[in-house]
Amino acid sequence: MSENTSAALPIVVIGAGPIGLAAAAQLLDRGLEPLVLEAGQTAGAAVREWSHVRLFSPWAEVTDPAAEKLLAPTGWVRPDGVAYPTGGDWAEQYLQPLADVLGERVRFGARVTGVSRTGRDRVVDADRDQQPFTVHIRYADGHEARILARAVIDASGTWATPSPLGGDGLPALGERAAADHVTYRVPDLKDPAVRARYAGKRTAIIGSGASAFTALAYLADLAKEAPGTHAVWILRRGITGSTFGGGASDQLPARGALGLAAKAAVDEGHADVVTGFRTTVVERSGDRLVLVGEDGRRLDPVDEVIGLTGFRPDLSFLDELRLGLDERLQAPVELAPLIDPNVHSCGTVYPHGVKELSHPEQGAYLVGMKSYGRAPTFLAMTGYEQVRSIAAALAGDQEAAERVELTLPETGVCGGAGLFDEPTAEQNEESGGCCATPATLPIGDTTTAPGGC
Ligand SMILES: Cc1cc2nc3c(=O)[nH]c(=O)nc-3n(C[C@H](O)[C@H](O)[C@H](O)COP(=O)(O)OP(=O)(O)OC[C@H]3O[C@@H](n4cnc5c(N)ncnc54)[C@H](O)[C@@H]3O)c2cc1C
Question: Does residue 149 sit in the same domain as residue 14?
Answer without folding.
Answer: yes
